[in-house]
Structure formats: structure tokens, C-alpha cells
Amino acid sequence: MKIEGTHEIHSSPERVYQALIDPAVLKRCIPGCERLEKTGENAYSTTLRAGVGSIKGLFTGNVRLEDLRPPRHFRMVVDGKGQPGFLKGDGDLDLASRNGVTVITYAGEVHVGGTIASVGQRMLQGAVKMMATQFFTSIEAEAKTEAHESPPKHDFFRTALRWFSGWLRRSFRSRQRAQPPQ
């Protein structure tokens, strides 16, 4: 299954990149992440509670970051397995600065098997898109936090509220651009 998308984050590429490779930040931002521990240079083991539809479970796996080019690019390689199935995948994340906003473009390939694969590709893609939106919304909150501030909380309702307020901002901004000058 191919996964791809873009997200805009209102912070500098340097701050966003640091958040994306910091294990403590990732543990707080990845939906369902219960554990993320460093096992080597840019390598981590993880425990994640996730599911699609009625098929839910606990996954254990590994994450490896490769081809690090701060603050513009890195590649992520993941594998995991649990009672509901397994997954293996890799993908590239590219960061670019546009008008004071960091645009993250990601593209990759994920192979899913076991019971979780039985829900179908459309449902899996919907779940992946929702988790990516939650993840990048949380990363934005982290990237906006100053070094002396405590980290933001990332429960479902806070993340949904952040997403909704960002959606409103984008909607009003695009509406203002679409109106002809008076």
C-alpha cells in the first residue's frame, strides 16, 4: 500500500526536524505509542496500540532513521508485528520552507498482513491518513513549544481541537485570497 501526503506546520524546518527525530517527542506524538526506546544509532524499538475498525491490538517493532540530511530530509524504515498481523514499510520525509511555514511531504510503501489486512486497503488508508493527521498536528504543537516550556499534552480531544482550529485558519486564509480586491 502506498502512503503519501503533505502537511503544513507553522514553525521553522529546524524546529520541526528536531521534533521529528527526538524519541521523547515521537513517543508523545505517535498515536497509540506506549514505548519508544533507543537501541542504537538512529534505531528504536517500540510498542504501539493500534487498530482499524474492530481489529485492534498491540504491536511491537523497530524504527530506523536513515539518510539524515538536517533539516531537509530523512528516511524511516519500520517493521512490527502483533496478534492482529504485521507491517513492514519505509518512506521518505522531506521538509521545505514556504512563506514562513514548513511543508512536510512524505511518501512510502507499507506492506500489511494478517487479520488487520482483511479490513481492506481503503479502510487501512483512511486509518493511516487519520493517524498521520493526528501525528503532524501533535508535532506542530511540539515544534511551537519553547525550550523552557513543558511539553504540550496530546490526547484525542486536544489534538482534534488543534486540527480544527488549523482547518479554520486555512479556510479563512484561502477565502481571503479568493476574494477580489475592493
Structure, described:
The chain has 182 residues and is an alpha+beta fold. It has a single domain (2-178), classed as START domain (Alpha-D-Glucose-1,6-Bisphosphate, Chain A, domain 4). The chain is 35% helix and 43% strand. The chain has four helices and seven strands, in the order E-H-H-E-E-E-E-E-E-H-H. The chain has a seven-stranded antiparallel β-sheet, covered by helices on one side. Strand 2 (33-40) and strand 3 (43-52) form a beta hairpin. The model has no long low-confidence stretch (mean pLDDT 88).
Strand content: 35-45%
- The tally of beta strands, per DSSP, is 7
The amount of helix comes to 25-40%
Structural class, from helix and strand content? alpha+beta
CATH architecture: 2-Layer Sandwich
Low-confidence stretches: none
**What's the number of domains?**
1
The name CATH uses for the topology is Alpha-D-Glucose-1,6-Bisphosphate, Chain A, domain 4
